[in-house]
Every structure is written in C-alpha cells, then in structure tokens.
Specification:
alpha+beta; five-stranded antiparallel sheet; 5 strands; Acyl-CoA thioesterase; hydrolase; HOTDOG_ACOT
Length: 145
C-alpha cells in the first residue's frame, strides 16, 4: 500500500550530493509506525528491529520518493513490515527502486510495556489487495476489474 509521497529537498542532501542514508532510514521508520497504526486500533508502536536495509540507487534533490509498505508477519504484540521506496518520475510515469528494508514494530501501552495488537482485518485486506495490484502492474500483467 502506498503510504507516503515526498519530494527530496536540498536540505536533505549529504556530502555526496544524494539523500543521506540516515535520513532515508528515519523516513522509513516513520512509515513503519504509520503503517502499524493504520492496520490496528493501537495508539503506540515502537521499533524493535530494522533488518535488510538495502540502498539500491541514490536519490537526488528534486526527486519524488514513494513509500510502499506491506505486512509480512502478524504476531500477538508485534508485526513485521516490509518497506520499499521508489523514485517516481511523473513526466514519464516511471519508477526506480531506491531502498528496501524490514521493520519489526511492537505495540506498547502508556507505560511502554508490550500489549496485544487489536487488528483491523478490513484494513489489512485492503492493503493486501493494493499490494497485489501494484506487484501485478510491475510485472506487466493486466489487472482485472
């Protein structure tokens, strides 16, 4: 599911003339928290683990980045979210993979203790459909309906 679309600004750029990797990771972490909140009725989530963060290609100032998130694992108190980031070029309507990673988020109460996730099944189903549609488009297949 598409979570966010942002433009990379000059102030986001590091010494190499591209988006600083730590900035990208922070943005992805926010997307993971937003995704967890959209898929549940819980108010608070914390990041337990980030793994397989891969930088596929650089992001330059003025480029538009899109964040796509899918839930790859649902637990009792945690969920694993796969995030893919792409540059979107509106003039050509094309995409380029730039970063991907996996974030484990834990639901916590007001005291910071883990709590059970109160899932929103309808939101998860809708997100899964959006993910399948996007993957089919990427594969060049025609989508029914």
């Amino acid at each position: 599911m598409l979570i966010s679309r942002e433009m990379v600004l000059d102030q986001d750029i590091g010494l190499n003339g591209t988006l600083f990797g730590g900035d990208m990771m922070a943005r992805m972490d926010m997307v993971a928290g937003i995704t967890a909140s959209l898929m549940s009725r819980n108010r608070r989530f914390v990041t337990l683990k980030v793994s397989e963060l891969i930088f596929h290609s650089p992001v330059r100032p003025g480029e538009i980045i899109e964040f796509y998130a899918t839930i790859s694992r649902q637990g009792r108190t945690s969920l694993t979210i796969q995030i893919e980031v792409q540059v979107y070029a509106p003039v050509t309507d094309s995409h380029r993979d730039v970063t991907s990673g996996e974030f484990v988020m834990v639901a916590v109460d007001g005291e910071g203790q883990s709590e059970s996730i109160l899932w929103k099944p309808e939101a998860i189903q809708e997100a899964n459909r959006a993910h399948e549609t996007r993957k089919a488009r990427q594969a060049g297949r025609k989508i029914p309906g």
